[in-house]
């Protein structure tokens, strides 16, 4: 099938969102010259802006000046501003608010701080550098493995808030509570609610 490539079709989008947008795919449906209509890309679908790059099985652009981006299937992407990369099954992105929602076996990597996160849903706001993680949450950083039902990751401050069966494992040491606040730089841990811990000393005695 013929491949279509469109690069910044609407000049007004440069000023509203202060960024370029380009997109491509094996097939396209919709009217690319309309500000309001939906444009759908299928097969090797790709979208790139100054902020984010996305590839997927299919991508849908909608709203005025392609404000909204939706993607489905085998999604991979890079968040340039925040030095993150990600994989997931479904994506929703608002170019104006710069909030991306990742769904379905999400994997997110903070390349700057060497943090790997996984969850069933992650919402990331690049204006605040805050990620909200829900369901089957797991984060790994250096020797630390953190898990919970819900978490808030503050990238700038390197602070992690874990809630719901929260747990932090550091080598052979383990800490669990209903909620845990973890400073990923200093490794300071604050726990609250049904607190439990297991620490093994250098002599391997519990």
Looking at this protein, list some descriptive labels.
206 residues; mainly beta; 1 helix; 2% helix
Account of the protein in words:
The protein is mainly β and 206 residues long. It has 1 helix and 15 strands. It has a 15-stranded antiparallel beta sheet that branches. Mean pLDDT is 87; it is low at 1-16.
Summarize the SSE layout with pairings:
Blueprint: E1 4-7, H1 12-16, E2 21-25, E3 27-29, E4 39-49, E5 52-62, E6 68-79, E7 84-94, E8 99-110, E9 115-125, E10 130-141, E11 144-154, E12 159-170, E13 173-183, E14 189-192, E15 196-198
Antiparallel strand pairs: 1-2, 2-4, 3-4, 4-5, 5-6, 6-7, 7-8, 8-9, 9-10, 10-11, 11-12, 12-13, 13-14, 13-15
Q: What is the rounded Rg?
A: 20 Å
Counting H and I runs of at least 4 residues, what is the number of helices?
A: 1
**Strand element count:** 15
Distance between the termini: 65 Å
- What is the approximate shape? elongated
Task: Please state roughly what percent of the residues sit in beta strands, choosing from under 5%, 5-15%, 15-25%, 25-35%, 35-45% or over 45%.
Answer: over 45%
pLDDT below 50 for ≥5 consecutive residues: which ranges?
1-16
Taking the sheet with the most strands, its summary is: 15 strands, antiparallel
Structural class: mainly beta
Helix content: under 10%
Question: What is the typical, i.e. mean, pLDDT?
Answer: 87
N-to-C order of helices and strands: EHEEEEEEEEEEEEEE
């Amino acid at each position: 099938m013929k491949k279509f490539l469109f690069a910044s079709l609407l000049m007004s989008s440069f000023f509203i969102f202060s960024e370029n947008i380009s997109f491509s795919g094996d097939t396209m449906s919709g009217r690319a010259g309309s500000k309001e209509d939906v444009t759908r890309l299928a097969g090797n679908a790709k979208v790139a802006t100054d902020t984010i790059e996305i590839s997927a099985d299919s991508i849908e652009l909608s709203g005025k000046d392609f404000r909204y981006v939706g993607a489905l299937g085998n999604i991979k992407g890079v968040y340039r501003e925040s030095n993150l990369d990600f994989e997931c099954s479904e994506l929703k992105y608002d170019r104006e608010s710069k909030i991306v929602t990742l769904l379905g076996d999400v994997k997110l990597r903070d390349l700057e701080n060497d943090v790997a996160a996984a969850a069933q849903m992650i919402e990331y706001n690049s204006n605040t550098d805050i990620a909200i993680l829900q369901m089957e949450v797991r984060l790994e950083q250096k020797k630390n493995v953190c898990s919970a039902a819900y978490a808030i990751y503050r990238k700038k401050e390197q602070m992690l808030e874990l809630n719901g069966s929260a747990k932090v494992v550091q080598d052979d040491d383990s800490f669990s509570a209903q909620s845990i606040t973890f400073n990923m730089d200093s490794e300071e841990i604050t726990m609250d609610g049904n607190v439990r811990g297991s620490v093994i000393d250098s002599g391997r005695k519990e």
